[in-house]
Amino acid sequence: QVQLVESGGGLVQAGGSLRLSCAASVGIFSYYYMGWFRQAPGKEREFVAGISRSGRTTAYADSVKGRFTISRDNAKNTVSLQMNSLNSEDTALYSCAAESRKLAPSRPADFGSWGQGTQVTVSS
């Protein structure tokens, strides 16, 4: 019972940065573990980053550790993904996801709600 809308995607040169945002408009936001996933053409959707209900625990895919930072603002019902040092392998459709029943989900099947995604394209 949560609607998610992503924003912030676009074109960026290799080495550049982008900040993605996800706004949740339905549900008690603080009850949801939030995650970011991405999917490149011809590939499966993969986990990028996740953040606990309180925001005090985070998880990252090995490929983005040290470059991406996930954060949330429960007062504003938003979760963000700061992406730095982008490279061509980061090109994908990035989607926001939410889960209220599982405390620490990480697989796509663990999440019950999804946004439509925002495209990130990195040029070399």
What keyword list fits this structure?
124 residues, mainly beta, seven-stranded mixed β-sheet, globular
Structural overview:
With 124 residues, the chain is mainly β. Helices cover 0% and strands 48% of the residues. It has no helices and 11 strands. The protein has strands at 4-7, 10-13, 18-24, 33-39, 46-51, 58-60, 68-73, 78-83, 92-99, 113-114, 118-123. The strands form 2 sheets. Strands 2, 4, 5, 6, 9, 10 and 11 form a 7-stranded mixed β-sheet that branches. The protein is globular. The model has no long low-confidence stretch (mean pLDDT 95).
Tell me the span between the first and last alpha carbons.
40 Å
Tell me how many strands there are: 11
> How are helices and strands ordered from N to C?
EEEEEEEEEEE
Shape verdict: globular
**In percent terms, what proportion of residues is strand?**
over 45%
SS content category: mainly beta
Radius of gyration equals 13 Å
Helix percentage range: under 10%
The mean pLDDT is: 95
Count every helix, treating DSSP H or I runs of 4 or more residues as helices.
Answer: 0
Largest sheet: 7 strands, mixed
Poorly predicted regions are none
